[in-house]
Design goal:
The complex is a heterodimer. By secondary structure, chain A is mainly alpha-helical. Chain A has nine helices and no strands. Helix content of chain B is 75%, strand content 0%. Chain B is built from eight helices and no strands. Classes of the chains: A mainly alpha, B mainly alpha.
């Protein structure tokens, strides 16, 4: 069984291509979903009740369906709306839509806990509307939400594995194709697990680093 | 690729005459409900194994059992980073390779249980660590043995504080459960995909599946409220 790892090493290029796809999907997915999440969080905290209701319905739907179901929906329903994406792009779209809901809920939760004083001080200095949100509220919210954003990012990395089912060539897909060609299930999937673990460790280290910076700033 | 893996090309989108509600037969509906039953049954099996096993592992961490502590920590750290799909494929293909013949159902339950045990262990550990020491000391002062103290003093209180987090993890497991399709299980998601492939109208079965997941999650959350209420009444 240990010898099987040398077969995986010989096919390292395929595994690395899968890894790069997972990294690319995850980082783009995390970044874009955070951007949309920022907008959704503002909508959730808005004073317009129609906006709040609509956003709440969208966010809650995302939070109660499995990612794979949404990925299928995006993959099969978008073409009927006239949008023809390839597997990779529709996978990315699914990641962004799904996680924007979670990111919005994380940011809203932290925002609701934010002390009133800094927001009041901001409005006293003449900040209002979008400027108040982007310059005063958002930096504090994002800094305080970093651990939760980190956890969600780990979730995003793990969710990308579902995309192998719609034939996106990501890490698990690569491991699976190596295993089916050479029949080295243990070595192939353990290598994939090790790479997932390494990616998550990077995120955890990043979160710890940002937390230290946040502590200094406080 | 695995027995249950669908290929992207298996599908073709053909709109049938612009009708919003296409021909989804009652047989389709039944297969969707059967899928829901499979999702619930396998997730429950994972939970029934994972909750007590997670507690046992958490006790090992909490009592600082030397070697076991290191093993449990590594296990939790690895599983936290492993996607359910990858874990499912590993179990389904690697166990037979070392001579353990397992079927899809066993593989699915193992996958879900191994995953949720790690997260439950973290939840229980946090609950045990936060438990006030003075209560344990006073129980000991009354001459209660350690197992007795644990059963009668700690567990009832820790279980109550951990309940919301445990139920939250159960809903996360439910949302991850479609991963077991890779070992060839037909759950709600997979049933919906099949119906969509037959009718060329993926939207209705997917929306129904979404409603079913929402209903299942809702039942779990209500059960949590009910359990919390009944444990407060005591």
């Amino acid at each position: 069984m240990i010898r099987d790892f040398s077969i995986v090493l010989e096919n390292m290029d395929r595994l690395l291509v899968g890894l790069m796809n997972t990294v690319l999907l995850s980082t783009t997915g995390i970044f874009l979903s955070l951007l949309i999440g920022v907008a959704f969080a503002a909508a959730l905290m808005s004073e317009n009740r129609v906006v709040v209701r609509l956003t709440r319905a969208l966010v809650d739907t995302m939070r109660c369906i499995p990612f794979l179901l949404l990925a299928y929906l995006v993959y099969y329903a978008l073409p009927s709306l006239g949008l023809n994406f390839d597997n990779w792009t529709s996978g990315l779209v699914a990641i962004v839509i799904y996680n924007a809901g979670y990111m919005a809920e994380i940011l809203r939760g932290v925002w609701a806990q934010l002390p009133r004083e800094s927001i009041d001080a901001g409005s006293a200095f003449g900040f209002y509307g979008r400027n108040l949100y982007l310059r005063i509220i958002l930096p504090q919210v994002v800094l305080a939400a970093i651990p939760m954003i980190g956890n969600q990012s780990i979730q995003v990395i793990k969710d990308t594995a579902f995309l192998m089912i719609i034939a996106v060539p990501e890490l698990t897909h690569a491991a699976s194709s190596i295993q089916s060609k050479y029949y080295v299930p243990f070595a192939a999937f353990i290598s994939a697990v090790a790479l997932y673990w390494a990616m998550c460790s990077v995120i955890e280290a990043g979160v710890r680093r940002v937390e230290r910076i946040a502590q200094v700033r406080r | 690729m695995g027995a249950g893996v669908l290929k992207g090309g298996e599908w073709a989108i053909r709109r049938t005459g612009g009708s919003v509600f296409p021909a989804m037969t009652s047989a389709d509906l039944i297969s969707l409900l059967q899928g829901a039953a499979v999702t619930v049954a396998l997730s429950l099996a994972g939970i029934v194994i994972g909750v007590p096993l997670g507690l046992s592992l958490a006790i090992l961490l909490w009592r600082r059992v030397p070697l076991a502590q290191l093993i449990v920590k590594t296990y939790v750290s690895l599983i936290r980073a492993t996607p359910l799909v990858t874990l499912g494929l590993l179990i389904y293909f690697a166990l037979p390779a070392i001579g353990l013949q397992i079927g899809p159902v066993t593989a699915a339950i193992l996958t879900l249980a191994i995953n949720t045990t790690a997260f439950n262990c973290e939840i229980w550990r946090a609950g045990l660590t936060d438990f006030p020491k003075d209560q344990i000391e006073s129980a000991q002062a009354f001459g209660m043995s350690w197992p007795h103290t644990f059963r009668r003093i700690m567990l009832p209180q820790v279980a109550r504080t951990c309940l919301p987090a445990l139920v939250n993890e159960m809903t996360l497991l439910l949302k991850g459960s479609p991963a077991i399709a890779v070992v060839g299980i037909v759950d709600v998601t997979r049933a919906a995909v099949r119906i969509g492939a037959n009718t060329y109208e993926p939207l209705p079965p997917f929306l129904l599946a979404t409603a079913l997941y929402a209903a299942i999650v809702f039942v779990f959350v209500r059960a949590q409220r009910w359990l919390e209420g009944s444990s407060k009444a005591r």
